[in-house]
Amino acid sequence: MKLAEAKQQFISSWGAFGTHWGINRTMAQIHALLMVSPDPITQDDLMEQLDISRGNVNMNIRELITWGLVDRVILPGERREYFTAEKDIWKVATQIIKERKKRELDPMLKLLSQLEKIEGDKKDKKTKQFVDTVSSIKKLGLQADKTLDVMIKADENWFLGGLVKIFK
Amino acid sequence: MKLAEAKQQFISSWGAFGTHWGINRTMAQIHALLMVSPDPITQDDLMEQLDISRGNVNMNIRELITWGLVDRVILPGERREYFTAEKDIWKVATQIIKERKKRELDPMLKLLSQLEKIEGDKKDKKTKQFVDTVSSIKKLGLQADKTLDVMIKADENWFLGGLVKIFK
DNA sequence: AAATATTTTCAAAATATTTTGAAAGTTCAA
DNA sequence: TTGAACTTTCAAAATATTTTGAAAATATTT
């Protein structure tokens, strides 16, 4: 397989993969292309290589920037903006974990705490099942929250090298 | 807050939550309702309580069954089918992890292995960046794969009680 | 076997999401 | 300050996904 073909496959699969994770296809594809591009590239490059409109590129690039996965780069003497993606995959992963935790896990835990405090007779079967379900989800969520915090703080080598041994 | 209101909130939030995870809103809502229902319920109950059509319920219930999160129950002397959800949240989590690993992680790792074997000069900057990116994603993916396998095999108490201490 | 109850299917309709592209906005060199 | 180069916005169009509901299939009872 040649580079061009492999690149296409990677971009296309990464896009499909992204849709399973609540990320839109194009955003994931832009991210994929930027990750395999050694040097910063422009919006026009992205438009051409992914065959999408200017507005689409602009929108999704900005979203990637708010996720902390892509940076704007100003090349000296150049008028146009260039873009580049974080290449360290560990940093990419922790960045994504950090953001999703903030956007999804934290609000969910907050809600579950509210719902636990429901008024009603604990002897009632329906009430009991509700509280039990909500509490156990919250418990698991809190655990995940702590575990992810540790992961975020840990450095790449510790994770890649050491974690499995601990788990074994 | 009363039970009815809390239940509504839980179902609705769980649905919204699900969409961030590639699960459709209705499927997540059905799952939520079944989780807080102490006894098995029918398709008609789901239709009424969630205000959705029969076909919709049927489709999503079957999907939940293939995910291993919901079971058909035949009550003795009853003609209609009833449905019930796994209530042990640890089992729910491991089941979801198991399925997503199979559906998403495994195929992705397979693809990345293919893409690594690209023909081309490693001294070429573009080729190098491509191989580096693909390899490091694969490495992280393999690690996640192993870690998740260990989690799936571990029992609930070990995870809920012991894991954090190890991480600290 | 016929009637009745229940479940499944799936084409069409409804809804939601993504994409486009042209106009408006911004920046900057001359 | 002007105008060319570039970026951003956003309403409308295109596309994708979800939902409906009635008909077909299946199962159960009489």
3D architecture notes:
Two copies of one chain form a homodimer. In chain A, helix 1 (3-19) runs antiparallel to helix 2 (25-36), helix 2 packs across helix 4 and helix 5 runs antiparallel to helix 6 (125-153). Chain A is mainly alpha-helical and 168 residues long. Chain A is elongated and about 70 Å long. The first copy, chain A, has seven helices and two strands. A two-stranded antiparallel ribbon of chain A has the order 1-2. In chain A, strand 1 and strand 2 form a beta hairpin. Mean pLDDT of chain A is 92; it is low at 164-168. Helix content of chain A is 71%, strand content 6%. The first copy, chain A, has helices spanning 3-19, 25-36, 43-50, 54-66, 89-116, 125-153, 156-167, and strands at residues 70-74, 81-85. The first copy, chain A, binds a DNA duplex (30 and 30 nucleotides) through residues 24-26, 43, 52-56, 58-59, 62, 79-81.
What would you say about this model in short?
Chain A is mainly alpha-helical and 168 residues long. The first copy, chain A, is built from seven helices and two strands, in the order ααααββααα. The longest helix of chain A is centred in the C-terminal third of the chain and has 29 residues.
Topology (elements, then pairings):
Two copies of one chain form a homodimer.
Chain A lengths: L2 H17 L5 H12 L6 H8 L3 H13 L3 E5 L6 E5 L3 H28 L8 H29 L2 H12 L1
Antiparallel strand pairs in A: 1-2
The structure holds a DNA duplex (30 and 30 nucleotides).
Please state the oligomeric state of the protein chains shown: homodimer
Q: Give, in spatial order, the strands making up the sheet with the most strands of chain A.
A: 1-2
Distance between the termini of chain A: 37 Å
- Order of helix and strand elements from N to C terminus of chain A: HHHHEEHHH
| Poorly predicted runs of chain A | 164-168
Amount of beta strand of chain A: 5-15%
Could you describe the largest sheet of chain A, including whether it forms a barrel? 2 strands, antiparallel
Tally of DSSP helical segments of chain A: 7
The largest interface is: A-B, 58 and 59 residues
Q: How large is the radius of gyration of chain A?
A: 21 Å
Q: What is the percent of helical residues of chain A? A: over 70%
Query: Total number of β-strand segments of chain A?
Result: 2
- Average the pLDDT over all residues of chain A and give the rounded result: 92
Structural class of chain A: mainly alpha
Shape annotation of chain A: elongated
